[in-house]
Amino acid sequence: MQLQLKYERQKKIQHHIRNLKRISAVFVFISLTLICSVQARSEGNLSLADGKKTYTHYCSPCHGTKGDGKGFNAKNLDPRPANHTNIKLMSRRTDKELYVAISNGGRFVGKSTLMPPWGGTLNKSQIESLVLYLRKLCKCRGL
Ligand code: HEC
Q: CB of 108 closer than 6 A to ligand 1?
């Protein structure tokens, strides 16, 4: 009789442990998924925010704070700075072309020498985040 009770109690405990294991596995899975998605999102935001900051600092005097090509310096330039909110113009460029234009300057891509080369001032990830920000300004994708 006592043995039978002991056996049942043991079975119950084993059942509990199995349940606990299952619950903790699910918990670990959910937390990992959450951590990964939060991290991915903050990385995306970070480089976009980074792009905006760099753009405001280095590009807005010519291209304007809104990216419409109407910076305070624009009226002194001929040809005028590109309008980065122009979907027609921007969707004809690949991300790679934008990168090269920013890094090597206007002359390198057969455009105005008034567009300076930034490869010596900005690093790779800064230029990549600028491209990301340009895509936000034009609300478009490249070819
Ligand atoms: C001194 C003024 C000036 C500054 C500062 C400047 N640009 Fe420009 N940018 C120009 C001009 C002018 C053009 C137009 C060139 C043309 O149409 O021939 C241009 C064109 C461009 C183009 C278009 C190239 C194409 O394929 O048509 C991109 C992209 C660009 N600039 C990005 C940037 C970024 C990003 C920055 C900041 C890091 C920046 N520019 C800073 C003057 C400037």
A: no
